[in-house]
Amino acid sequence: MEDTTRLNVSKLGTKKYWDDFYALERENFSKNPEDTGECWFDDNGAEERMVEFLVDNDGELRISTQSKMIDLGTGNGHLLFELCENDFDGPMVGVDYSEESVQFASHISKAKGYDTNTSFMAADIFDSSWSPGKFDIVLDKGTLDAIALSGKKFANDKTVIDVYSTVIEKLLESGGIFLITSCNFTEQELINIVQTDRLKVWKRINYPVYEFGGVKGTTICSVAFVKQ
Ligand SMILES: C[S@@+](CC[C@H](N)C(=O)[O-])C[C@H]1O[C@@H](n2cnc3c(N)ncnc32)[C@H](O)[C@@H]1O
Which GO terms describe its molecular function (predicted)? Predict the structure, then answer.
């Protein structure tokens, strides 16, 4: 069967692209404090649906308003701030390899008063010496999509796609949840990338289905995995 999970290398897969992107967003925020930057997949209501998913599943497995969470490739940190707005007040960490993103998210957090339970750190999630501890919930909104465009390779010619699930396993407590949203991968491709003996599909978020020329599909998907 054809491997459809290989993507082309693009500037969206480079740290420089994201440093420049968040430097500009920081500048915009300094001029207008209401401008907290781009909210990825806003058109699809992805952030809203991810938060709603966690609200609806409060009490299941390790999901609670006190859950310890980490957002991978957090960008402007908006997903974590939205969780704060929905009464999640456990410790939340946003990690991003762009220091500009970390400074931007930290600045917003402080300015808007979310800094009692959110914190931000600069790290490459593939750095083997990065060890932030274990979490009840790991989040990814659009980050695997960007990572897949990096063309980065590891030992034995392994790609970021090959090693991504080991990063998730390292970060999750047993019974913890990994909730990911992608617009570059289909639901089945996401499952092929993430699912392992220890990470199993738990639930999915439903999005409106479009139909064109007799073909049905969605432009975005979110899947929740549970660590065994
Ligand atoms: C498409 S943006 C999504 C940002 C945010 N999750 C959102 O929904 O607005 C991808 C993010 O992943 C970050 N990123 C890419 N590769 C990374 C890596 N290896 N480690 C940490 N962050 C990374 C980028 O700096 C960028 O902020």
Answer: protein-lysine N-methyltransferase activity
What the block records as the tokens of 30 is 């300094």
The first and second tokens of residue 103, run together, are 């400074």
Q: Distance from the CA of 183 to the center of ligand 1, in angstroms?
A: 14
Instruction: Tell how far the Cα of 143 is from the centroid of ligand 1, in angstroms.
Output: 4
Using CB distances shorter than 6 Å, the residues near ligand 1 are 18, 39-40, 73-75, 79, 95-98, 101, 124-126, 141-143, 146-147
Choices 3.40.50.300, 2.30.40.10, 3.40.50.150, 3.40.50.2300: CATH for 11-31+42-227: 3.40.50.150
Q: What is the pLDDT of residues 143-153, one digit of tens each?
A: 999 999 998 89
Nearest CA to ligand 1 atom 4: 75
CB 209 within 8 A of CB 216: yes
- Res. 4: pLDDT tops 80: no
The length of the chain, given as a count of residues: 228
